[in-house]
């Protein structure tokens, strides 16, 4: 059974600091996704990572994928308050249609 | 492109009534649609996968007779919560995929269901 685990689950940080959220998954997958969710809202797609060594960046967020380690990271650079949200990673299982989500990381950035 | 809508966005109903939630792909044809449920401060839980014109595939532990899913066309799937109870109160999110297994899922805005 494919399992996806994120850590930390809660993260409180100050503006201007850097931090990394980790996403581990248990079996081979096709793709890895990162999503953002604001309170009361649905998911906003951030990144889709397709292959080993893939790195994608958008603004202060950068995501990477190591398929050999079954690990993805979401790095936040010089955090700003607007990045406060819950971040989910999700994995597409090989040969299956469905996504398996991690528990989510609730990020709070304090001024 | 790839916009998914849900209706209604919020619904409040009395215990024992049925509620229908619609999920539409607005600018593409969705071969597969997915229904998720999210309790407060928790992750998304897949309830079922539906392919157009065929019966939905439900995840383990999801009651088929309680959560009726119909995927009658390539742009519309509906979720009906029958005889709703307070424990069914949740955030329901649908997603749609264009091509079988080879495309990303596009998520709808979600429907907040409150059962009194």
Descriptive account of the structure:
- The complex is a heterodimer of chains A (111) and B (116).
- With 111 residues, chain A is an all-beta fold.
- Chain A contains no helices and eleven strands.
- Chain A has strands at residues 4-7, 10-14, 19-25, 29-37, 43-49, 55-58, 61-66, 71-76, 85-93, 99-101, 105-110.
- Chain A is globular.
- The model of chain A has no long low-confidence stretch (mean pLDDT 93).
- Chain B has 116 residues and is an all-beta fold.
- Helix content of chain B is 0%, strand content 53%.
- Chain B contains no helices and eleven strands.
- Chain B has strands spanning 4-7, 10-13, 19-25, 32-38, 44-51, 57-58, 67-73, 76-81, 90-97, 105-107, 111-115.
- In chain B, strands 2, 4, 5, 6, 9, 10 and 11 form a seven-stranded mixed beta sheet that branches. In chain B, strands 1-3-8-7 form a four-stranded antiparallel beta sheet, with no helix packed on it.
- In chain B, a hairpin with a 2-residue loop joins strand 7 (67-73) and strand 8 (76-81).
- The radius of gyration of chain B is 13 Å and the shape is globular.
- The A-B interface holds A 31, 33, 35, 40-43, 45, 48, 88, 95-99, 101-104, 106 and B 32, 34, 41-44, 46, 49, 93, 97, 100-101, 104-110, 112.
